[in-house]
Design a protein that fits this description.
- One of its GO terms (biological process) is mismatch repair.
- One of its GO terms (molecular function) is ATP hydrolysis activity.
- Belongs to the DNA mismatch repair MutL/HexB family.
- By secondary structure, this protein is an alpha+beta fold.
- The chain has 2 domains: about 190 residues, Histidine kinase-like ATPase, C-terminal domain (Heat Shock Protein 90, 2-Layer Sandwich), CATH 3.30.565.10; about 120 residues, Ribosomal Protein S5, domain 2, CATH 3.30.230.
- It is about 30% helix and about 25% strand.
- The strands form 4 sheets. An 8-stranded mixed sheet has the order 5-4-3-6-2-1-7-8, covered by helices on one side. Strands 9-10-15-12-13 form a 5-stranded mixed sheet. A two-stranded antiparallel ribbon has the order 11-14.
- A hairpin with a 2-residue loop joins strand 9 and strand 10.
- The radius of gyration is 22 Å and the shape is globular.
- It binds adenosine-5'-diphosphate and magnesium ion (MG).
- The site of adenosine-5'-diphosphate has 23 residues, from helix 2 and helix 3.
């Protein structure tokens, strides 16, 4: 007999889809923090235990979720952020697929507590492996707290795939650092096994944030440059060429406040520093690009870290031009001499 086609029920479908959105504790944290940012929070706390494998808790002081929406929020393709296909070309929020909560809840034991400003009481929703366990009224401060316990407890293949606690913890620290740098006006607190990893003060000062996260030695060696060129605003915090690394891990790029990986920006950085640092050494820099969202395609990868510039060559040239200007500015020259 031929096998007949049947539709997967929603719980299995979500479990399969979860693999694309969340592949490790760090990606759960990225999605949840992005939700907190989209909810206009100015204070976000990330707490992990056991490298996030058994415990991830994100709390924010954002808008909260309407009590009638708390269950819908866990459905796949349920989002408050876009309504029609045209919205896709001008996305300003970090989320828009409506997949994260459904995916995370499908592969963990999740508890959400939320209260919106327009309501006196909050809601607490518990979902285990995609199944709603409870939805009750609860007293709560304004904002949302999500607790994700025992990630991948029901997906052995994913569970096995997680790396050592040390590796998973460093992925987490890395992603929270980048989110904190992308949003200097939000105060971030990262706590690992009850110890504070870093706190940013949320006062908008990027150099200050770089100091809180990567230390004063890097922060005090930064050159600041900013210029608008061809409708692209480029802001760079560039470490002096005398301070380099053996890898590109501290080259961090943001486009419209989104942390991204981009060969285009990376090439622009290499080009700008080309004559200043020796081969096999790499610059440390933080580059912020602002441009019309219509000129970028971010919808090419579910994790949304890769983007495509529609006018790649010009973007590269523009960024490289501005960075060079900063690096070759007068203020730098005495500093280089000083160190010789
Ligand atoms: P998306 O972010 O793509 O819209 P999610 O599955 O991440 O999809 O979230 C679904 C919806 O739940 C969001 O559109 C938002 O309305 C609501 N939501 C999730 N997290 C929060 C939060 N921390 N604060 C307020 N609303 C939230
Ligand atoms: Mg989201």
């Amino acid at each position: 007999m031929e096998k007949r086609i049947n539709r997967l029920d929603e719980i299995i479908a979500n479990k399969i889809a979860a693999g694309e959105v969340v592949d490790r504790p760090a990606s759960v944290i990225k999605e949840l923090v992005e939700n907190s940012i989209d909810a206009k929070s100015d204070k976000i706390t990330v707490e992990i235990k056991n490298a996030g494998k058994s415990y991830i808790r994100i709390s924010d002081n954002g808008t909260g979720i309407h009590p009638d929406d708390v269950e819908v929020a866990f459905e796949r393709h349920a989002t408050s952020k876009i309504r029609k296909v045209e919205d896709l070309s001008s996305i300003l929020s970090l989320g828009f697929r409506g997949e994260a909560l459904a995916s995370i809840a499908a592969v963990s034991q999740l508890e959400l507590i939320t209260k919106s400003k327009d309501h006196n009481v909050g809601r607490k929703v518990v979902v285990h492996g995609g199944k709603l366990i409870s939805n009750d009224e609860v007293g709560a401060p304004g904002g949302t707290t999500i607790l994700v316990k025992n990630l991948f407890y029901n997906v052995p293949a994913r569970f096995e795939f997680m790396k050592s606690n040390g590796s998973e913890t460093s992925y987490i620290i890395d992603i929270v650092s980048k989110l904190a740098l992308a949003y200097p006006n939000i105060s971030f607190r990262l706590i690992n096994n009850n110890k504070v990893v870093f706190v940013t003060n949320g006062n908008g000062d990027i150099v200050n944030n770089i100091a809180s996260i990567y230390g004063k030695d890097i922060a005090k060696n930064l050159i600041n440059v900013e210029e608008k060129i061809d409708n692209i605003t480029v802001k760079g915090f560039l470490c002096k060429p005398s301070v380099t690394r053996g890898n590109k891990k501290l080259q961090t790029f943001f486009v419209n406040q989104r942390y991204i990986k981009s060969k285009t920006v990376s090439d622009a950085v290499s080009d700008a520093y080309k004559t200043l640092i020796t081969i096999n050494r790499h610059a440390i820099c933080f580059v912020y690009v602002e441009m019309n969202p219509n000129l970028i395609d971010i919808n090419i990868h579910p994790a949304k870290t890769e983007i495509r510039f529609k006018d790649d060559e010009n973007v590269k040239k523009g960024i490289s031009y501005v960075l060079k200007k900063g690096l070759f500015s007068k203020s730098l020259i005495p500093n280089i001499r000083e160190e010789e």
